[in-house]
Specification:
GO terms for molecular function: S-adenosylmethionine-dependent methyltransferase activity. By secondary structure, the protein is α/β, with parallel strands linked by helices. The protein has two domains: about 170 residues; about 190 residues, Rossmann fold (3-Layer(aba) Sandwich). It contains nine helices and 19 strands. Strand 16, helix 8 and strand 17 form a beta-alpha-beta unit. The chain is globular, with a radius of gyration of 21 Å. The two termini are about 35 Å apart. The model has no long low-confidence stretch (mean pLDDT about 90).
Length: about 375
């Protein structure tokens, strides 16, 4: 999966008939370690608060990945536009690479078209059309919806535009969220069936904990997808607190905020008293095994969380980036965990080797 990111957030330059909204973008993988190597059409638009374009068809560019492009400046002239108070810039791939739906992430619903890899759309913060001031500097928005007409929800995830990878959407979290949000009848081959996970998610009054929540996409998807919940608690290090506070605010969440919250949880420290005192039904861990140096603390934390709770399930989503991550499985086995269920979700990559996201459901040793 590739992601369009703002290297320089949209800003006004010029005046009068020469006034333009200008930004600099890049197209990279989730960790930013490589740039898109394909030539792809890019669509740039400016929308009002209602999501409707104020300039008509927008403007098209070409990302020249075959020439080694690493950034692209985009601009839109703002003359003869519909007058509105606040605007956003929207940058998206054209054609089959366009991704803003959960089903597209999973490669389904394309009417037989081959999934060759996607590029996730990005939206800027709101900009005051009179003053040009950005209302939330340093942030960008991802919006994901579903093809399920009976449940036309949208999930809004804000991430930072800076270089920190910790506060961006990553592949495993996005794929796990897409799998959770997609109706069961659409999960056909080559997607795995995970009946234990589906059964666990269908239980009433669940207590759900997420470790290493980052921007919070997994837990926010769970909140919007599950009909009955007791609570969802997102945890991460202090540097993720600001983005989690933003994403869980009522204005962004459009949901009952009393059921979801976040707090700091450092895997190298004892469990906070409220976490230790709660009987957790499901513990989610996505994109957290890439650094083998912290994996022992992660596994020890998981052991403390489920201690004495044989019915608890730990759901792990990961993209194996290097062999050193395999230490996680050995440590989980030593801690008494067994894999109750597993499956792999294909993740094609434009002009790259196809990848996969593996989903594991762990439980404590024994039956069940």
């Amino acid at each position: 999966m590739h992601y369009i990111r703002f290297l320089k957030s949209p800003r006004f330059v010029g005046s009068g008939n020469e006034k333009a909204l200008v930004a600099k973008i890049t197209v990279t993988t989730d960790l930013g370690e490589s740039f898109l190597a394909a030539d792809v059409g890019i669509s740039v638009d400016v929308v009002a608060e209602d999501g409707e374009s104020i300039i008509g068809p927008g403007r098209e560019y070409v990302w020249k990945g075959r020439d080694g492009m690493r950034s692209l400046e985009v601009s839109l002239l703002m003359k003869k536009v519909r007058k509105v108070a606040r605007i956003k810039m929207v940058v998206a791939a054209k054609g089959d690479a366009y991704v803003d739906r959960f089903e597209k992430v999973l490669g389904i619903g394309e009417r037989g078209a081959k999934n060759e890899g996607g590029i996730v759309t990005v939206k800027s913060v709101e900009i005051d059309s009179s003053s040009g001031h950005s209302l939330g500097a340093g942030l960008a928005e991802r919006v994901f919806s579903s093809d399920d007409r009976s449940d036309p929800r949208e999930i809004h995830i804000w991430e930072e535009t800076g270089e920190s990878i910790a506060r961006h959407v990553w592949d495993a979290g996005l794929v796990l969220s897409s799998y959770i949000a997609t109706p069961r009848h659409l999960k056909t081959s080559p997607l795995p069936r995970l009946p234990l996970l589906e059964t666990s998610l269908s239980q009433p009054k669940l207590n759900i904990l997420e470790l290493g929540a980052g921007c919070g996409i997994v837990s926010i998807t769970l909140l919007h997808t599950l009909s009955t919940l007791s609570q969802i608690l997102l945890t991460d290090l202090p540097e993720a607190s600001a983005i989690l506070t933003h994403n869980l605010s009522p204005a962004i969440l459009h949901h009952t905020p009393s059921k979801i919250s976040h707090q700091v949880l450092d895997w190298s420290l004892p469990l906070p008293s409220n976490v230790a005192a709660t009987k957790w039904d499901l513990v989610f861990v996505a994109d957290c095994t890439y650094n083998p140096d912290v994996v022992p603390d992660l596994v020890a934390t998981l052991g403390r969380i489920v201690e004495g709770n044989g019915q608890a399930r730990v759901v792990v989503a990961m993209k194996l980036r290097h062999e050193s991550e395999m230490v996680f499985f050995g440590l989980m086995e030593e801690a008494g965990f067994v894999v109750k269920e597993k499956g792999a979700v294909p993740l094609p990559v434009l002009c790259g080797e196809d990848e996969e996201i593996e989903i594991f459901v762990f439980g404590l040793g024994g039956k069940g």
